[in-house]
Amino acid sequence: MLTMEGTTIVCVKKDGRVAMAGDGQVTLGSQIVKSGARKVRRIGKNGINVMAGFAGSTADAMTLLERFENQLDEHHGNLLRAASALMKEWRTDKYLRRLEAMMIVADKNDVFLLSGSGDILEPESGVAAIGSGGGFAQAAALALLGATELDASEIARRSIEIASKICIYTNDSIILEAIE
Length: 180
Prior knowledge:
Blueprint: E1 4-5, E2 8-14, E3 17-22, E4 26-28, E5 31-34, E6 40-43, E7 50-56, H1 58-74, H2 79-92, E8 101-106, E9 111-115, E10 120-121, E11 127-131, H3 134-147, H4 152-164, E12 175-179
Antiparallel strand pairs: 1-4, 2-3, 2-11, 3-12, 4-5, 6-7, 7-8, 8-9, 9-10
Helix pairs in contact: 1-2, 3-4
């Protein structure tokens, strides 16, 4: 059975700004089936300003994104409480336990990587990345963060561009969101 693959998401926190970028490629086996998928989104209502990026099965990721947005509303925009509630639900619900996806969620203060094993990880470096090209994007972001004066948005964008030159499951059709 062929599975959908191909995502690179990177989130960079620098100088009071947070930026998240994702590529647009979706691959089925050895074929590119979509080059402009939107895997980074702004979510939240009533003045809540949060970004989310996802990797994994599209249906699974969309289910988790919807559940996370509900938790965010329920916890009045508190990112950590919403992430904790989603992780509890993800680990204990019989249906959700089987979902195969990862997410990065961020607001102006925090960045968290969420996994199906119940992890809520806060990167020490201010950089988080997921997906098939995530390691490449993270390495690029860390190098740019330490060696340039680029802002968070430009570091995130360039990191995806660099990953797209290395990872066959990543392209340079970039969606970028930022919060100041």
